[in-house]
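User: My collaborator sent over this chain with a note saying "see what the structure looks like." That's all I know about it. Can you take a look?
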Amino acid sequence: MIAPFRSDIPSLLRPRALALCGAALLWALLAFAAAPVARAESAQPDLATGERFTVLLVGLDRRAPHEQSRSDVIMLLSIERKTRSLSLLSIPRDLWVPIPDYGWYRINAAYFFGEVYEESGAALARRTVEAVFDVPVHAVVAVDFAGFIDLVDAFGGIDVTVAKDLVDHTYPTMDYGYTSIFIPKGPQHMDGETALIYARTRHPDNDFRRMGRQQNVIASAHAGLFRDEMVALFPLLYQRFNEIIETDLSHAEQLLLLRDLYLLRDEPIDARVIEPPLVYDYVTEGGAYVLLPDWELVRPMLGEMFGVPNADSAQGSVR
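Assistant: Without extra context I'll predict from the sequence alone. Here is the result:
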């Protein structure tokens, strides 16, 4: 347990003292995690020098422990300390893509196929995103509904400005039923359960607006995590984070990325959604209603956000 600060520290200096204490703890943790980590399947950037590192963020539609699930949320988060850039791209779950070794499916099926037929849902989801977008993905972080609630609560909640009243009379519950929800317009401090509702509901508008709300949650968590009073709790939050999420990030990588996020805490996030006109409706031969990307529009955006050339993506012929 962290001891309370002495009461004789002037109140105006306490935020700075908290921040310095947290930073010192973070750098102390980094000293114990300096060993480099490499994955055989791809070259890893040098996080010590601040090279670009891209993480696939996956939100799982899992409502019971060990339940096999599809990915309800698919995002790419890219961090580059050298250029002081943070990029966040939301990928529609209904995007019609070729999943390696399986054929054409909605992109959210990749995690499910990996869990059912292979050793890892995360590994197949990663391979799929890399193949489709031609963007190197260096790690995966996945969390299910219960984990998301616990994670937000561990932060002490998040502050979100809700753009409009959100009313949904068919919001899906954890027991596969439905309920009515209402989140009023304006600034809100949300606990984990409310934040999950805010990020999941789509009936008030559509999937694209929902992806925008999910990005608001990420941005709010990023801003809140580095408040002065939170920085001193980094070691405890770091431990709780690893109890909740599923990831192939090593402990060293997690700490280095935490350092970079701390150093870039005042930088704006370049947050974008793959939405019309970047995608358009398509009906497959089997009658499925899906989305297809307009690569002439998507490729330049990928170059801007992730620093990759406008190379051909694994589009193939649609079927």
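A starting point for your reply to your collaborator: The chain has one domain: 16-306.
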